[in-house]
Design goal:
alpha+beta; two-stranded antiparallel ribbon; 13 helices; elongated
């Protein structure tokens, strides 16, 4: 018996997000046959994801703050809340504009204009970029925002299925849409900046929550682009935490206990602190050796670990170099390694994002990359994985 896709019940937000990330080809086929309720697409899908990313940014910047070398800088609460609201609004507008651009350009690339299909493509194709924004909650794992680039892959896969784009025109269509969207995004960014300066306060806002899914637990693994796999049960934990407001974090003091009193190179622990939010926890230690300093941050990603695993599974890579220094990201055995050196800033950064945990080190005052790397190795990412694995 064949099920009519236009009458089949729509999946939940969590199910749709998981499906579009893990099995985009078959999910786009399913989406293509669904009726397009544009209002529901934005209120039931874009808004919750945009809000989740905005809340994570607000918590990271205004509640926890950005710490380095014993100093924590926080964006004022009112300014942070205003910024979060603007971020949500701009997220909604950005997706809407992307849909309009995609539909308007369709005839130029042998594709079919269809407003409903264009909105579905923009909405669901933006899933990865919204979820990647969640990692703004802790600067040490902010590098995982690279996962947002996966949205380009989603759009590429979706174009022939929703806009009937010929294979020969697919790359040109996608590139043109991206260029136009970037130009419009620059304008929108300027507008958002002006709005932040003009808004003087915020009364407060609250986001509704949906009931946890009652579906049977997911089991098994799914292969992703890049050759890796994602554990579905771990990804489901993240989805449930999203629905329930973040889930419970481990006791951050347990992480603080992982900070040794000394590190290679003669560094001694000068101060330590810890915090938790939205199902994640972190501990930070400041180490000194004369004028040289190390700031070590240990993060337990909790429910976010499921989607964080996509970084390793997708084999994220980055390599850039200029006169001031270099930045490098590579994936080894499912773990993301990052290092960065700035000559003008006199600083080095080194970090490892493992399976559910991350350790980063920032050094200044003559600290070498080898010393930063030795600090991470002393704490031991694999040891933390074993100790805090769920």
């Amino acid at each position: 018996m064949t099920v009519d896709p236009t009458t089949a019940s729509a999946p939940s937000l969590i199910e749709r997000a998981k499906n579009i990330l893990l099995q985009p080809q078959s999910e786009w086929d399913r989406i293509a046959g669904e009726s397009a309720d544009v209002g529901k697409l934005y209120t039931g899908y874009v808004l919750p994801l945009a809000a989740l990313a905005a809340i994570a940014s607000f918590v990271g910047l205004s509640v926890l703050g950005i710490s380095a070398f014993g100093v924590t800088v926080r964006v004022p609460m009112v300014a942070g809340a205003v910024g979060a609201v603007i971020q949500v609004v701009m997220g909604l507008v950005g997706v809407y504009v992307l849909a309009l651009i995609t539909n308007a350009l369709a005839p130029n690339f042998g594709s079919q204009q269809d407003v409903g299909q264009a909105h579905k493509l923009a909405v669901y194709g933006s899933t990865a970029s919204f979820l990647a924004g969640v990692f703004a909650i802790f600067p040490p794992i902010a590098m995982l925002s690279l996962l947002g680039l996966y949205s380009l892959v989603l759009l590429y896969i979706g174009l022939p299925r929703l806009m009937k784009t010929p294979e020969a025109k697919r790359v040109g269509y996608l590139v043109t849409v991206i260029i136009v969207a970037i130009v419009i995004g620059i304008v929108m960014g300027a507008v958002a900046g002006a709005a932040r300066g003009a808004m003087g306060g915020l009364g407060g806002y609250q986001l509704g929550q949906t009931a946890p899914s009652q579906q049977a637990p997911l089991e098994g693994q799914v292969t992703l682009p890049g050759g890796g796999t994602v554990d579905l049960s771990e990804l489901e934990k993240m989805g449930q935490a999203m629905q329930q407001g973040g889930g419970a974090a481990i006791d951050p003091m347990r992480l603080q206990e992982q900070l040794p009193q000394t590190l290679p190179g003669g560094f001694a622990l000068a101060s330590a602190s810890s915090a938790s939010a939205m199902g994640t926890a972190q501990a930070e230690g400041v180490y000194r050796n004369g004028d040289a300093g190390l700031t070590v941050t240990v993060v337990h990603m909790g429910a976010m670990g499921g989607i964080a695993a996509m970084a390793g599974a997708m084999n994220v890579q980055e390599n850039r170099q200029d006169a001031d220094g270099y930045a490098r990201t590579q994936t080894i055995d499912g773990r993301m390694f990052t290092e960065e050196m700035s000559n003008s800033g006199g600083s080095v950064k080194y970090g490892v994002v493992g399976h559910g945990v991350a350790v980063t080190v920032e050094g200044t005052g003559g600290v070498t990359m080898d010393q930063a790397r030795a600090a991470v190795e002393t704490i031991g990412v694999q040891r933390l994985e074993r100790q805090f694995a769920r």
